Amino acid sequence: MGSLFAFCIHQSKPIPFENWPTQNDKYSHKNLDSQKVELGRELFYDPLLSLDSSISCSSCHSPYNAFAHSDHNLSHGLHDSIGKRNAPVLFNLAWLDHFMWDGAIHHIEAQALFPLTHPNEMGMQIEELVFRLEKNKKYSQQFSTIFNEKEIKTKHIVETLGQFQLSLISNQSKYDSVAKGLQSFTEQEQRGYELFKKNCNNCHTEPLFTRGSFENNSLSPDPILLDSGRYLVRLDTNDIYLFKVPTLRNLRYSFPYMHDGRFQKLSEVLHFYTHEGILRNNKKTKTQFPIRLQSIEKVDIIAFLNTLNDSKFIYNKKHSYPFHFMNK
User: Fold this and answer.
1) How many other C-beta atoms can be found within 10 angstroms of the C-beta atom of residue 119?
2) Which long-range contacts (CB under 8 A, 24 or more apart) does 154-158 make?
């Protein structure tokens, strides 16, 4: 084991933030406006944005769950209506080109608009939302100051919500500290890292731990949900059962896993892909399922995945509930 570790420990190192892929030019965090970000934060946590003022964006995207949710396998909306997918995490979005599990949304501002108006989510009519915000003295003053216009417009609302979401960057995990040379992996974490790069990195590519691509995750379709994934967007038979590859950062906080939340534990996910996954070859990523791993190797991979958890991001007060505004 000692000689094997000596071989592994020098094989590769994490990728530091300054060497991350280029952000989408439309969404560079360097272009964020602090006032718009703060207003978007306030809107994000305000149930005023739902039809009956019962839920907010944060109801399904809690900061303590890496802006996902853990209380239900599937997202819940207005009148406790149940959606057909698990709410995805909201961070490092500036590096993505498509949003939602099926990639139906191509712009961060449209992504904000979709749940606002969906009848099974927040159920709001945009005209009604604008009316409510203009009646609210605090919001009307803020919008007027920031956009220098008397009337609140839809584009103002989605821009601020989009700016807040783009400000959510997670890059302070142990993995990132190792990349900076501030910490070192344990022997087990390093072994897990090498196993990860060999078996998982094709789809969950570091340092974002997703390529942003759409893949068949090999899950048997839920007989009730009958979710055919990206096919519903493009109506291309090649897209049947394709779902966006999720990031593996902050998995400690963002359970349950997969697009329908069917797995509660990482061990269940690894068991599926090493025992139950449909035997097939992914031609695009050259990945074969099931993945052949010994029990100890799965433990090592989980140890590495735990280095991707970013508690500083989770408990960052800059994007938590804005008590200073809501309590006025």
Assistant:
1) 12
2) 154/113, 154/126, 154/130, 155/109, 157/43, 157/112, 157/126, 157/129, 157/130, 157/133, 158/109, 158/110, 158/112, 158/113
Residue 327, pLDDT score: 65
DSSP codes, 226-254:
---BTHHHH--GGGTTEEEPPP-TTTTTS
Q: What is the 3-state secondary structure (H, E, C) of 263-285?
A: ECCHHHHHHHHHHHCCCEEECCC
Give the Cα-Cα-Cα angle 202, 213, 267 (nearest 5 degrees).
Answer: 55
263 forms beta bridges with 257
pTM of the model: 0.91
Alpha-carbon distance of 52 to 80, in angstroms, equals 12
> Region 188-192: what's the mean pLDDT?
98
User: What domains can you pick out in the chain, each with its CATH number?
Assistant: 2-14+172-312 (1.10.760.10), 25-170+317-326 (1.10.760.10)
